[in-house]
Design brief:
Strand content: 15-25%
Mean pLDDT: 76
Distance between the termini: 186 Å
Shape: elongated
Structural class: alpha+beta
CATH architecture of the largest domain: 2-Layer Sandwich
CATH topology of the largest domain: Beta-Lactamase
Low-confidence stretches: 510-516, 554-571
């Protein structure tokens, strides 16, 4: 019996165990089923997220417009994160500003608004912290999302970060206080990452496009020609300046070889590209096709043997540099000429003075007068050469008289007509009927015309019988200037010669037939009159010189010469005490002889023995002195007299061989009479007589 109950008990325990086990299995099965359903839901959500992100990727890949990307992202996030409003804010072009470029739902009204980095909104906060931020706005504590307060609801913002740079932020809002799930925040963060990459790429594309537009605008705005050439020297790109320079449309330049467009030398472009490997080496060449002087500079472009070539028009620059060189030559030779003239003036003064004195002596017979005339003639010739040298070295300041160039031409033609008739030269004259008045010095301008006509006579004199001998002279008015044109039918002026015709001492004549100073002097006179002279160089087509001078204004100067001084009554000076100070012994001897012969007492001061002390020896009626003679206290005699003995200034005449302009200005400031050597002895004596008469009267 006991065993039976034991069996029954075991069976009951087994049944109970089976029942409990079945219950546990059912619960486990239910849990497994629940987990499967949960996983299935999570998988569905993840798949939905993947499909959503795939859809977002398609949307972002469809455009590179920043505004379009921002609007599509806002609409996407609003739809898939179950929000009521979304905005996309990007850094603005203005310094430290953010602007809403895309918005949807309840935040759509914020599109276009901008705010500063320093405000307290959630957008600027998440950009500053560079991570996702969320906030809940209860009714008693509103939260700012982007310059707009939210009184209730849930907010979230994620930064837009790409390539290590914060581009902006995405922000969303729910009008209800429903917290955002992890899936919502994960989707927002993932969408922000995708959006940031798309926006970064769009910005790069925009920068590239903007840079391309700016480069093309700059390329076309450069005033010099630019060409991108390939390894064969063909143009791949060209700017408008090159098109204007060559006269070929930009579109037609593409594919053409650059060298034939610029110069006859086909190797020019090849050479400049070859030289560019070690740095820019500009080449200057004359383009026969374009009639321009061009400077080409090349720079290599990548590994394809292409090059960028800059083509500059330096025609005017070359002419300006030539003019500067010409002026520098004139200045350098002018200094040399001034020194030579200074050394010649003293002996010429002695020669002309003593010759003039001897010619006035009754003891000289007729034959002696003839010899003296020859000496005087040759001395005057030498003095004329010196004056020409001085005119070249220091062109005298032009006068302020009104000069009619038609009258100057007519007078000069009258002087040369006999020589032209003698050489069987035909003359053609075309004088403008309008006034051709200029302001200047009549004699200097006449020298200009005479030099040009003489140059033309010499040019046509050697023409062969078959070639006509003709000189054409024309005057005209052009743009406020009077133009003188002197042309001839001579052999012409080669280009290499034209650059030198105004150089001093340059001449194409045989030795002994010319000094080469005529055109140099002409150049200096024209320049001193604020004019311009140029030579038209045409081989075998005759020579032409064109002079342009500013026309005189109608009321700028009064007609007529200044009234002449009334002649002073002759006063006989019986005797005067004269102090003579000069460093040249021959000049001292000549002046001593001339003034002593007229009855004056001449005291010759030794220039090496303190000539300033000679003034203390006597009360001199007249002082003839070289102003540059040094004195014992330092400085010059002229400065010492003006400073220490101003009372004798009115009785002083300075005699100088110094031809520099600053010396003339310095002597003018002293207020004393002065003469440049070589001077006319008779004029010096007359000036001395007038000075003695004036001082006697006072």
């Amino acid at each position: 019996m006991t065993g039976l109950w034991g069996v029954l008990g075991a069976l009951a325990a087994g049944v109970l165990g089976l029942w409990i086990g079945s219950r546990r299995s059912a619960s486990r099965i239910q849990q497994i089923q629940h987990d499967v359903e949960t996983g299935r839901g999570e998988l569905k959500r993840r798949m939905d997220e993947i499909f959503s992100l795939q859809e977002l990727s398609y949307l972002l890949a469809d455009t590179i417009s920043l505004d379009r990307i921002a609007d599509q992202v806002a609409q996407y996030v609003e739809r898939f994160v179950a929000s009521d409003g979304v905005l996309v804010a990007l850094t603005h072009a203005a310094p430290r500003q953010i602007q809403v470029v895309g918005a949807s739902g309840s935040l759509k009204s914020l599109k276009g608004q901008a705010t500063n980095y320093g405000d307290a909104s959630l957008v600027t906060k998440t950009m500053a912290n560079q991570h996702l931020d969320t906030a809940t706005a209860p009714a008693d504590r509103p939260v700012s999302i982007f310059g707009s307060e939210l009184r209730s609801g849930t907010l979230a913002a994620a930064p837009l970060q790409a390539h290590g740079e914060i581009l902006g932020a995405i922000a969303l809002v729910r009008d209800r206080e429903t917290p955002l799930t992890d899936a919502d925040l994960r989707l927002l963060t993932t969408a922000a990452a995708h959006t940031a990459l798309a926006l970064g790429n769009a910005r790069f594309v925009e920068l590239i496009r903007t840079g391309k537009d700016q480069w093309e605008a700059t390329f076309d705005a450069i005033a010099d020609g630019i060409a991108v050439v390939d390894e064969r020297g063909c143009i791949r790109r060209a700017n408008r300046a090159l098109s204007s320079m060559t006269g070929v449309r930009v579109v037609d330049l593409i594919g053409k070889e650059l060298a034939p467009l610029l110069a006859t030398d086909q190797n020019l472009v090849t050479q400049v590209v070859k030289d560019s490997g070690g740095g820019p080496h500009p080449l200057v060449a004359r383009s026969d096709q374009l009639k321009l002087v061009l400077r080409l500079t090349a720079a290599p472009m990548g590994e394809a043997a292409w090059a960028v070539i800059l083509i500059e028009d330096v025609t005017e620059q070359q002419a300006l540099e030539a003019s500067v060189i010409q002026n520098e030559k004139m200045a350098a030779v002018g200094q040399l000429v001034s020194g030579v003239a200074h050394e010649l003036n003293n002996p010429l003064t002695s020669i002309t003075g003593l010759t003039e004195f001897l010619q006035q002596q009754p003891s000289v017979d007729e034959r002696g007068h003839q010899h003296l005339s020859v000496i005087r003639e040759q001395a005057d010739r030498a003095a004329a050469i010196v004056r020409n040298l001085l005119a070249f070295a220091r062109p005298p300041s032009p006068g302020t008289a009104r000069v009619d160039m038609n009258d100057v031409v007519s007078r000069t033609i009258a002087l040369t007509r006999y020589e032209m008739r003698l050489r069987d030269i035909e003359l053609s004259v075309d004088l403008d009927t309008q006034p051709t008045n200029v302001v200047g010095d009549l004699y200097q301008l006449q020298q200009v015309v005479l030099n040009l006509i003489t140059n033309a006579i010499h040019a046509v004199a050697d023409n062969p019988p078959a070639r006509e001998r003709r000189i054409a002279i024309k005057t005209s008015r052009s743009d406020g200037a009077v133009v003188l044109d002197v042309g001839d039918t001579g052999p012409g002026i080669p280009e290499e010669t034209a650059a030198k015709v105004f150089d001093p001492f340059f001449t194409t004549k045989n030795p002994g037939e010319g000094t080469g100073l005529g055109l140099s002097i002409t150049y200096g006179i024209v320049q001193s009159h604020r004019g311009d002279i140029r030579v038209v160089a045409e081989d075998d087509a005759g020579g032409r010189f064109v002079v342009s001078l500013p026309a005189a204004q109608s009321m700028a100067y009064q007609e007529g010469a200044a009234p002449e001084r009334p002649a002073e009554a002759a006063r006989e000076i019986v005797s005067a005490l004269v102090l003579l100070v000069d460093r040249d012994a021959a000049v001292r001897q000549m002046i001593d002889l001339v003034f002593s012969h007229d009855g004056h007492t001449v005291v010759v001061a030794d220039p090496d023995e303190r000539p300033d002390l000679a003034l203390d020896a006597a009360a001199y009626d007249l002082i003839l002195a070289d102003p540059r003679v040094p004195v014992s206290t330092g400085g010059t005699f002229a400065d010492w007299v003006r400073r220490e003995r101003p009372e004798v200034m009115e009785r002083t005449i300075f005699l100088t061989a110094d031809v520099r302009p600053e010396t003339t200005e310095w002597l003018e400031r002293t207020g004393c009479r002065f003469f440049h050597k070589p001077f006319n002895v008779q004029e010096l004596k007359e000036a001395a007589d007038r000075l003695l008469s004036e001082t006697k009267m006072t």
